[in-house]
């Protein structure tokens, strides 16, 4: 159990070590001895070996009490699904760190990238291995923060900052949706523990909050996995360094949403709402992403949109909740992680060697296979895997997809649509894969590239081409290894994959399920559909120039404008309007707003909890121990308070206010607390003296005379506030949840506090920290008053009455207001 926790947090420890290395070791020494940093690759490599050792055993768990009163534990749970993702995260992560060693020229950039990548690795491992939903959400948000830092790695570039901000806002908004869904799951199931939920899958489906939970969880997953129409942040995040793009956007982060649906699918699927929502969004994303990918010019943009497409089919496969769908999901997940990470790294190598990722410029250069043979080999293997050509693992991914499309439990029209979409989408993937491999490394265009429409593609990676050359060895290792695995696993290691795939499918399906992959199972309908898809893909590839021109003429649904309006116009303007309402320039208006909100909130809550016996209980509390003399004093205090409103001068208002304080002291004395009465009376006297001293510098007569309507409004607001507080006190006494603590103080004041005055013992001993806090507040208030006195009019000397000065425009000297929307935007 300790080893499981160590495997999760080992990358963080490595990141801390790298940070210390960067601060201590001189840069010149690091450049001469790169092995001082290269050891960092061992962290994900050892984690990969550890997770691989867990494949054959039972699910492993580790748990500690975290917030025991809420039933929240810090727990980790490694079943088949979690292990599959953990192996991808750690294995691809090791290759990414190796590749980055050749990609970054500066040792400082390499150490910073490795530090951020290790932090992100821990966040992703925490997501997939969490045994508690609240803990999963915390790691989920850490992935958003760390990916923001990786996407904005080149922070000096505006496009990188914009892409990072866009990714953070979209995935962050999805995270808030997920948090609400997780809390509702906890309310419906009475637990946040993953294993408890999986053992009782029907509890959520039977809940009255099921549809709301499904919607909130799905929105969180769709945002993280770039599902239509929230897909646009992923291509924008391509401004990240290529190793980060390969890691985040092909193998790990974007699959977090797929993992979430797979983890919670057992408790959420099996309903028409789940089937329609998950399947429709996934299929739309699958087709839309690959069609838009074919019209791109930037290699990374092509790979980004094709990633969006495959994420869509991974989501759609979970719509029916069938065994074949779970099998296709697992195989497609692993295959995509291998071939797409290889292709992303190839794109980085091409950009590194030629200075451009523009497909037109690369086609004009042509024949990169000759100067870059090993990179070309990695590209061809990755493209063949993407196209689903046997015997690569990608072929099995496409094959299991066709099997799932034929066997999904849908009504006949939707099942036919499923098959058509699977074939057509796979065909477009073939065309995209051919364009990546052939146009970059084999083909050569004799005519110059056509002019590029303004503003359609990102400028990143479209610099002037330079003389191509082979990538450094670390980059070749990083790019070739996933492709080699994609080829070797189906040919030689399919039996070794069975335990891992069996456990992963069983975790997704919710029942023990055996998985036995075969590279060739004879001529059957799925194989025929795969051949049809490859044939259509070959036709699309041969007609790619015409299709490309046609697709470029079609409008693209790009919700970036909606995103900018929502986050940078609507939200700021709404916040500004609310701020003007709740925090206006005049303090009294702000107080009125706050009081009305408080009154409305309390009344709504009291109305919701009102029952037939509420009025009787309140009447009983109100009349219990009724003393006429106290009622008279309270009535006098109310009259005194009203009298303050009609006082003609400041001095009269101060005196009337002092009378109210004296009557409150009288109440304390009647209730047998003479020391408290004396203290309150002394405080009132001192306060009156301070008021008089302060108001000596102000005109005695009030300069501002409110209108009758405003006086009437203020009286209504004050009266509503007083009645609401009175009602709240009576309701609280009528619905006591626990006995009064007064008896405890009476019993223990002398034994514990060694004092016979209970009030003093409470203030000094039992609630000493409260008293210290109050003293601190008074001290801070005194410092604040002293600071404010420094802003008095410069022409007013000490002891000089304001009436003796020339009139000063109050609005110019003292009026405070927030900037107008136009000013703040300027």
Question: Your description of this structure?
Answer:
This protein has 826 residues and is mainly alpha-helical. The chain has helices at residues 2-24, 27-32, 35-38, 42-53, 80-103, 107-129, 133-151, 158-189, 194-199, 202-205, 210-224, 233-236, 242-251, 256-268, 272-294, 299-316, 323-354, 359-365, 373-387, 393-407, 412-441, 473-492, 494-509, 525-542, 544-553, 560-582, 587-608, 614-623, 628-645, 650-670, 674-695, 708-734, 742-753, 758-766, 768-789, 810-813, 821-825, and strands spanning 60-67, 72-78. It has a two-stranded antiparallel ribbon with strand order 1-2. A hairpin with a 4-residue loop joins strand 1 and strand 2 (72-78). The two termini are 56 Å apart.
How does the SSE layout of this entry go?
Blueprint: H1 2-24, H2 27-32, H3 35-38, H4 42-53, E1 60-67, E2 72-78, H5 80-103, H6 107-129, H7 133-151, H8 158-189, H9 194-199, H10 202-205, H11 210-224, H12 233-236, H13 242-251, H14 256-268, H15 272-294, H16 299-316, H17 323-354, H18 359-365, H19 373-387, H20 393-407, H21 412-441, H22 473-492, H23 494-509, H24 525-542, H25 544-553, H26 560-582, H27 587-608, H28 614-623, H29 628-645, H30 650-670, H31 674-695, H32 708-734, H33 742-753, H34 758-766, H35 768-789, H36 810-813, H37 821-825
Antiparallel strand pairs: 1-2
């Amino acid at each position: 159990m300790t080893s499981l926790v160590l495997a999760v947090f080992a990358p963080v420890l490595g990141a801390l070590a790298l940070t210390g290395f960067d601060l201590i070791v001189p840069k010149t020494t690091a450049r001469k001895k790169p092995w001082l940093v290269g050891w960092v690759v061992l962290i994900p490599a050892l984690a990969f070996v550890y997770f691989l050792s867990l494949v054959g055993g039972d699910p492993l768990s580790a748990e500690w009490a975290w917030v025991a009163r809420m039933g929240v534990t810090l727990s980790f749970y490694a079943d088949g699904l979690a292990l599959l993702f953990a192996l991808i995260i750690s294995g691809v992560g090791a290759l990414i760190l190796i590749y980055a060693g050749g990609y970054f020229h500066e040792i400082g950039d390499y150490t910073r990238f490795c530090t951020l990548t290790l932090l992100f690795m821990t966040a992703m491992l925490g997501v997939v291995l969490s045994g508690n939903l609240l803990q999963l959400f915390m790691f989920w948000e850490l992935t958003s923060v760390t990916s923001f830092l990786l996407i904005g790695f080149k922070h000096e570039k505006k496009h990188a900052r914009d892409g990072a901000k866009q990714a953070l806002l979209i995935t962050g908004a999805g995270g808030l949706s997920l948090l609400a869904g997780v809390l509702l799951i906890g309310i419906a199931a009475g637990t946040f523990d993953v294993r408890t939920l999986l053992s009782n899958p029907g509890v959520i489906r039977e809940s009255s909050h099921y549809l709301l939970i499904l919607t909130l969880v799905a929105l969180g997953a769709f945002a993280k996995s770039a599902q239509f129409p929230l897909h646009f942040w992923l291509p924008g995040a391509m401004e990240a360094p290529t190793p980060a793009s390969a890691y985040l956007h092909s193998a790990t982060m974007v699959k977090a949403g797929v993992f979430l649906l797979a983890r919670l699918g057992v408790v959420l699927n099996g309903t028409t709402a789940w089937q329609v929502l998950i399947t429709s969004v996934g299929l739309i994303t699958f087709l839309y992403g690959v069609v838009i990918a074919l019209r791109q010019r930037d290699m990374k943009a092509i790979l980004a949109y094709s990633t969006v497409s495959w994420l869509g089919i991974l989501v759609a496969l979970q719509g029916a909740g069938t065994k074949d769908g779970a099998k296709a999901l697992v195989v497609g997940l692993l295959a995509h992680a291998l071939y797409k990470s290889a292709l992303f790294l190839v794109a980085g190598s091409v950009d590194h060697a030629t200075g451009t990722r523009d497909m037109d410029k690369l086609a004009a250069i042509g024949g990169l296979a000759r100067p870059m043979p090993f990179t070309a080999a990695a590209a061809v293997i990755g493209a063949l895997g993407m196209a689903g050509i046997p015997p690569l693992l990608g072929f099995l991914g496409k094959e299991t997809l066709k099997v799932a499309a034929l066997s999904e439990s849908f009504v006949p029209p939707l099942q036919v649509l499923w098959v058509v979409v699977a074939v057509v989408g796979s065909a477009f993937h073939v065309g995209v894969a051919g364009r990546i491999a052939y146009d970059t490394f084999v083909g050569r265009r004799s005519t110059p590239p056509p002019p590029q429409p303004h503003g359609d593609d990102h400028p990143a990676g479209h610099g002037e081409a330079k003389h191509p050359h082979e990538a450094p060895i670390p980059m070749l290792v990083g790019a070739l290894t996933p492709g080699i695995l994609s080829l070797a696993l189906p040919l030689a290691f399919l039996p070794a994959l069975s335990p891992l795939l069996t456990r992963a499918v069983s975790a997704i399906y919710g029942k023990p399920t055996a998985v036995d992959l075969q590279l060739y199972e004879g001529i059957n309908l799925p194989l025929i559909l795969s051949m049809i898809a490859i044939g259509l893909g070959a036709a699309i590839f041969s007609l790619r120039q015409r299709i490309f021109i046609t697709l470029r003429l079609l409008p693209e649904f790009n919700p970036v404008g909606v995103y900018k309006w929502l986050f940078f116009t609507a939200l700021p303007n709404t916040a500004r309007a609310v701020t003007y309402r709740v925090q206006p320039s005049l303090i009294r208006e702000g107080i009125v707003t706050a009081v009305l909100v408080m009154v409305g909130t309390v009344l709504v809550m009291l109305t919701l909890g009102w029952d037939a016996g509420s009025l009787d209980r309140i009447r009983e509390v109100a009349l219990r121990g009724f003393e006429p003399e106290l009622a008279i004093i309270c009535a006098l205090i109310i009259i005194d308070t009203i009298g303050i409103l009609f006082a003609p001068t400041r001095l009269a208002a101060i005196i009337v206010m002092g009378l109210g304080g004296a009557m409150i002291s009288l109440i304390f004395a009647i209730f047998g607390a003479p020391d408290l009465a004396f203290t309150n009376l002394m405080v009132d006297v001192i306060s009156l003296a301070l008021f008089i001293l302060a108001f000596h510098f102000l005109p005695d007569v009030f300069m501002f005379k409110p209108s009758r309507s405003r006086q009437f409004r203020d009286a209504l607001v004050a009266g509503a506030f007083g009645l609401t507080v009175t009602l709240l006190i009576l309701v609280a006494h009528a619905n006591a949840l626990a006995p009064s603590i007064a008896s405890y103080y009476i019993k223990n004041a002398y034994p514990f506090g060694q004092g016979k005055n209970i009030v003093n013992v409470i203030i000094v001993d039992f609630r000493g920290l409260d008293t210290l806090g109050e003293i601190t507040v008074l001290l801070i208030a005194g410092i604040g008053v002293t600071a404010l006195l420094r802003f008095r009019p410069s022409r007013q000397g000490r002891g000089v009455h304001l009436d003796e000065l020339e009139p000063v425009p109050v609005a110019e000297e003292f009026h405070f207001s927030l900037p107008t929307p136009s000013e703040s935007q300027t």
